[in-house]
Amino acid sequence: MTEIEKQARTVDIEVDFLQVPADTLLVGYSADVEVVLERKDNVLRIPTQAIRQNNKIWLVDANNRLTEQQLETGLSNWSFTEIRSGLKAGDQVLISFDQDNIKAGVAVQPKKSQ
C-alpha cells in the first residue's frame, strides 16, 4: 500500500434500506462504514501506523537501538496490519517517528507494555 492509498479515507456510497428506521434518520446524516472482505484469526499483527513506505519498520534490537527491517505484510486496515514475515511475536517496533533524529543505530527507551 502506498502512503497516498492510506490517505484516501472518504468514499461516497449509496445505501438502500430494506426497512427505513422510523423517525431516526435526518437529511445530512453521515456514517462510518467498515467493509470486511476477509478476516484471519491468530496472526501476528502490528499497528498500521508503525509501517513506513515500502513495508519497512524501525525494529528495536536487543541493545535498544533502532534497526530498519523489511516486512512481508498481509491483511491490513486502518488499525492493524498482518505480518507474514520480518518480525516475530514479542519484537518491539517504533510506532511514532515524528522526531528528526530517527535513523539506524539510534538508542531508544522502550515503553513498558500495558
Identify low-pLDDT runs: none
Q: If you compute it from the alpha carbons, what radius of gyration comes out, rounded to the nearest whole angstrom?
A: 19 Å
User: Which percent range describes the beta-strand content?
Assistant: 15-25%
- Tally of extended strands? 6
Q: What count of helical segments does DSSP give? A: 1
CATH architecture: Beta Barrel
Quick one: biggest sheet?
Answer: 3 strands, antiparallel
From the 3D structure, determine the CATH topology: conserved putative lor/sdh protein from methanococcus maripaludis s2 fold
Task: Describe the model.
The chain has 114 residues and is mainly beta. It is elongated, with a radius of gyration of 19 Å. The model has no long low-confidence stretch (mean pLDDT 86). The chain starts with a helix and ends in a 21-residue tail after the last strand. It has one domain: conserved putative lor/sdh protein from methanococcus maripaludis s2 fold. Strand 2 and strand 3 form a beta hairpin. It contains one helix and six strands, in the order αββββββ. A three-stranded antiparallel sheet has the order 1-5-4, with no helix packed on it.
Task: Pick out its properties.
conserved putative lor/sdh protein from methanococcus maripaludis s2 fold; three-stranded antiparallel beta sheet; 4% helix
